[in-house]
């Protein structure tokens, strides 16, 4: 999946799920301070990202997510880890 596509999809979800109206966004925006996320809305965002990208539960990975860039990086990291695992025969 191209890097830009991941960033665009993550940004779209982050903005759509933001508790406050957001105009322009940039990678350094802090989810809590700049976008109004609280612990519940962060959990909801985590669920949206898991569903959008077909991710396994990312609880541990999500603890370090503070900014929009962190969310993008986390999705890339999880997708890369999934791609690098050997496939098991069905």
Would you give an account of this structure?
- With 90 residues, this protein is mostly helical.
- The chain has one domain: Non-ribosomal Peptide Synthetase Peptidyl Carrier Protein, Chain A (Orthogonal Bundle), CATH 1.10.1200.10.
- Helices cover 57% and strands 0% of the residues.
- α1 packs antiparallel against α2 and α1 packs across α4.
- The longest helix is centred in the last third of the chain and has 17 residues.
- It is globular.
- The two termini are 24 Å apart.
Q: What is the CATH class?
A: Mainly Alpha
* CATH fold label: Non-ribosomal Peptide Synthetase Peptidyl Carrier Protein, Chain A
Total strands: 0
Number of domains: 1
Catalogue the unreliable spans. none
CA radius of gyration is 13 Å
Give the integer mean of the pLDDT values: 88
CATH H-tier superfamily = ACP-like
Q: What is the H-and-E element order? A: HHHH
Largest sheet: none
State the secondary-structure class.
Answer: mainly alpha
Separation of the first and last Cα atoms? 24 Å
Q: State the helical fraction.
A: 55-70%
Looking at the overall shape, the CATH architecture is Orthogonal Bundle
* Portion in strands: under 5%
Oligomer: single chain
Count of helix runs: 4
Protein name: Carrier domain-containing protein
Organism: Planosporangium flavigriseum
Domain Carrier: 4-79
């Amino acid at each position: 999946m191209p890097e830009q596509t991941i960033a665009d999809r993550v940004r779209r979800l982050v903005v759509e799920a933001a508790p406050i109206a957001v105009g322009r966004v940039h990678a350094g925006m802090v989810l809590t301070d700049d976008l109004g996320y609280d612990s519940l809305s962060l959990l909801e965002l985590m669920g949206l990202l898991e569903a959008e990208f077909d991710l396994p539960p990312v609880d541990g990975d999500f603890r370090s997510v503070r900014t929009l860039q962190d969310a993008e990086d986390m999705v890339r990291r999880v997708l890369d880890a999934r791609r690098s695992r050997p496939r098991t025969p069905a």
